[in-house]
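Why should sequence recovery work at all? Because a backbone constrains its sequence more than one might expect. Tight turns favour small or flexible residues, buried strands favour hydrophobic ones, and helices have their own preferences. The token representation captures these environments compactly. In the example below, the structure is given first.
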């Protein structure tokens, strides 16, 4: 038995070595080859990510931005998002370059951050894209963030219970008031029975003014017995 395990371990190592030789996995931060235990970014580059540690604080900046706008149970963001730096590079890759692995990786980091908290979440919901935007991009990055979280928290991802039923222009360069008006009423719950009585963790990539989260959460909260918590990969600063 021990001999068999050693042989399997050796074969796995050989398989990884050959794969790495012909198809090297490179760090998204520094482009150096990744070690077998590293995922997406190397350990050195990971130290450059500005983690918020908000999950340890109830009244954090993410919660304050949403306070008074929606009744939520918990709110957190994994990292600070700026126009420069590694996180901006990872988010740009996952939104515009098809690098869904970035989204899964960041989702896993977010899942590990909240794993030991007593949030008692029942399911994950990614903030949906309009079908036209998702078709153009080929995927919803927030869904892949959810998949990363689900891999850690072992929670179901409810992908189609809420949809974006109105196409909206980009929120970029809009004021807070313009963002709120742009997305107001643009989400619709399609399967209320799947939500009734459940605590939902609503997941998005980057929180700026919170207008999109607010609009989506309001649609969810219109269903009897639903409660909502919020988690994003980044918080714009």
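From this structural description, the recovered sequence reads:
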């Amino acid at each position: 038995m021990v001999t068999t395990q050693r042989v399997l371990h050796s074969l796995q190592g050989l398989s990884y070595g050959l794969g790495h030789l012909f198809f090297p996995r490179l760090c998204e931060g520094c482009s150096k080859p990744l070690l077998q235990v590293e995922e997406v970014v190397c350990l050195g580059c990971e130290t450059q990510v500005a983690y918020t540690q908000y999950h340890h604080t109830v009244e954090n900046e993410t919660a304050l931005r949403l306070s008074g706008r929606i009744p939520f149970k918990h709110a957190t963001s994994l990292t600070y998002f700026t126009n420069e730096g590694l996180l901006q590079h990872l988010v740009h890759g996952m939104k515009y370059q098809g690098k869904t692995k970035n989204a899964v990786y960041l989702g896993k980091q977010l899942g590990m951050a909240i794993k030991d908290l007593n949030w008692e979440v029942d399911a994950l919901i990614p903030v949906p894209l309009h079908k036209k935007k998702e078709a153009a991009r080929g995927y919803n990055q927030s869904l892949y963030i959810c998949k990363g979280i689900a891999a850690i928290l072992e929670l179901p991802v409810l992908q189609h219970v809420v949809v974006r039923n109105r196409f909206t222009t980009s929120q970029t360069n809009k004021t807070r008031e313009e963002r709120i008006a742009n997305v107001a009423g643009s989400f619709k719950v399609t399967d209320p029975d799947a939500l009734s009585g459940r605590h939902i963790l609503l997941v998005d990539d980057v929180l700026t003014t919170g207008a999109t989260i607010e609009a989506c959460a309001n649609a969810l909260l219109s269903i009897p017995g639903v409660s909502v918590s919020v988690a994003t990969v980044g918080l714009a600063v």
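A few observations help interpret the result. The longest helix spans residues 2-22.
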